[in-house]
Design a protein that fits this description.
Blueprint lengths: L9 H5 L3 H4 L1 H6 L5 E5 L5 H10 L4 E6 L2 H11 L5 E5 L13 E7 L8 H11 E10 L14 H16 L6 H5 L5 H24 L10
Parallel strand pairs: 1-2, 1-4, 2-3, 4-5
This protein binds S-adenosylmethionine.
């Protein structure tokens, strides 16, 4: 089992918003819901989730990276219906069982070498009739417009190889498909297509931020 050992860049994570970077989730959130956000990073999206579910709802965020979590607490610790905890989705304890209307993970399962186990644990944490909403990239199919410079493509090839060596799937969409219902699958596919587009734009506009590939 290969766990993510590098740190996702907090400057990139801090720029994320629910509406732009986790669109399908934004469309299904309702006031009063209880949400678990797995792999919250610095908490920018989770803070938006807490605002969206309002004071009658709750957002609980877990991440295995204590440094990013500390940043999350510092920045968003004042939001009353939001809590951050250190946690690994592969080792989720029983107190999470059947507690949440939605269990979500954005750009997180793609860094876990046992994605089926992670999704099984997410399903366990969802209430009966709840939803699991996952957003990941299909990194093998990323394309750039206009064409990326040759040096960058060489870097990107090495990035994909590094991920292979660590057994992180570069086509997460394919591997997790059987775990989802048909409706969720097509929604998920649509969400991913949009996200791939924004990924490509970000890379081509900000070549100094090649670190994007690591988030
Ligand atoms: C790329 S960041 C995504 C952060 C945020 N969800 C977003 O979309 O901006 C991936 C996060 O997943 C966390 N992570 C990786 N493996 C994890 C695991 N097994 N359990 C919980 N969190 C994990 C990392 O520490 C990192 O903060």
């Amino acid at each position: 089992m290969c766990q993510q050992s590098h740190r996702s860049d907090p400057r990139i994570l801090n720029r994320r918003t629910l509406q732009r970077d986790h669109r399908y989730l934004a469309s299904v959130l309702r006031t009063g819901m209880d949400i678990l956000d797995v792999g919250c990073g610095t908490g920018a999206i989770t803070a938006d989730i807490a605002r969206a579910v309002g004071p009658d709802g709750t957002a609980l965020a877990i991440d295995r990276d204590d440094a990013n979590l500390a940043g999350a607490v510092q920045q968003y610790g004042g939001i009353e219906n939001l809590r951050f905890e250190t946690g690994d989705i592969l080792a989720l304890d029983d107190r999470f069982n059947k507690r949440f209307d939605i269990v979500t993970a954005a750009r997180t399962i793609q860094w876990i070498s046992e994605p089926q186990r992670a999704i099984r644990n997410m399903k366990k944490a969802a209430k009966l009739g709840g939803q699991v909403v996952v957003l990941d990239y299909n990194l093998d199919e990323t394309r750039w417009e206009p064409d990326a410079p040759v040096d960058f493509l060489r870097f990107y090839g090495a990035f994909l190889e590094w991920r292979d060596v660590n057994r992180w799937d570069n086509q997460m969409l394919r591997i997790s498909r059987p775990s989802f219902t048909q409706k969720a699958w097509s929604m998920w596919r649509a969400t991913r297509a949009m996200s791939l587009f924004s990924a490509a734009i970000l890379i081509s506009l900000t070549p100094t931020h090649l670190g994007f590939g690591f988030t």
